[in-house]
Design brief:
The protein is an alpha/beta fold and about 260 residues long. Helix content is about 20%, strand content about 30%. Strand 8, helix 3 and strand 9 form a beta-alpha-beta unit. The N and C termini lie far apart (about 40 Å).
């Protein structure tokens, strides 16, 4: 029996056609790209990301950016990318101009964390904005396996309630799985009866929501978000995109560099 060709390649960029755009907020949308066959599966390992490329730099030079799909690894015929458009974001502004039928070059997957069931007793996650995408990948992978008993906790920061991405999906997962909890925090437009946090992520908030640093090797904390958010929570990555030094709230709370992964 002939083995079907893998739609994605980790070594070369391949073109995929945009099939649909679903607007989630004033500046964020889900872009669905079509695979060569309706039966094809991307099969991304958890947790991994894709590289997208477009000739949109100065003098048409290629620009490459990483994105983590929010579609299930076994989704057939497509993969979905969640993209927030920033005023100065070269690639995100390119996404916003794409029309159904246009193509985008994609390469991958690139592994971030080789997740295995029960690899840790507890995994905490701290996300800002579209930094939710790698967290969702881990959450859904862990929760779809009944043999996985890992406790999961998410602190998710956004500007306003309207900016909370994929909230219905996260809430449904939390309601169905007691071992997963999610804590939202917002900066403004706080509605009456709001049950989450108000303001930026603080050390006190993380101390309450995340697995304790004293758990040692049994605990892992994942962090993903915009640069200012990363600096405050964990410190940013190094210029070469390696992990860099641990800083911010997590260092103050006593976590070690081995307990934190900046994704």
């Amino acid at each position: 029996m002939e083995v079907p060709q893998t739609p994605l390649s980790p070594t070369e960029f391949r073109s995929f056609k945009l099939g649909n755009v679903e607007q989630l907020s004033h500046n964020t949308a889900v872009y669905r790209f079509v695979l060569p066959s309706p039966h094809a599966v991307v099969g991304l390992p958890t947790a991994s990301f894709l590289l997208v490329r477009a000739p949109i730099g100065e003098e048409g030079k290629p620009v490459v950016r990483p994105y983590t799909p929010i579609s299930a690894p076994d989704a057939r015929g497509h993969f979905d990318l969640l993209v927030k458009t920033y005023p100065t974001g070269t690639m995100s502004r390119h996404f916003a101009k794409l029309q159904v039928g246009d193509t985008l070059e994609v390469k991958g997957p690139v592994m971030k964390l080789e997740y295995k069931a029960n690899m840790k007793a507890a995994i905490g996650m701290v996300a800002g904005g579209t930094g939710i995408t790698p967290m969702l990948q881990v959450i859904e992978e862990a929760l779809r396996n009944d043999a996985d008993s890992t406790r999961l906790s998410l602190v998710y920061a956004n500007v306003s309630p309207a900016d909370i991405l994929l909230k219905d999906r996260l809430d449904a997962l939390a309601a169905a799985h007691p071992r997963f909890t999610v804590h939202y925090t917002i900066d403004r437009d706080v509605p009456a009866g709001w049950q989450g946090g108000v303001g930026h992520v603080t050390a006190a908030m993380l101390r309450e929501q995340l697995p304790a640093a004293k758990l040692g090797d049994e605990a892992l904390v994942l962090v993903c978000g915009p640069p200012g958010f990363m600096n405050a929570v964990s410190g940013g990555k190094a210029p070469d995109y390696s992990q860099g030094e641990l800083a911010g709230h997590l260092k103050v709370l006593g976590y070690s560099a081995a307990q934190v992964l900046k994704v």
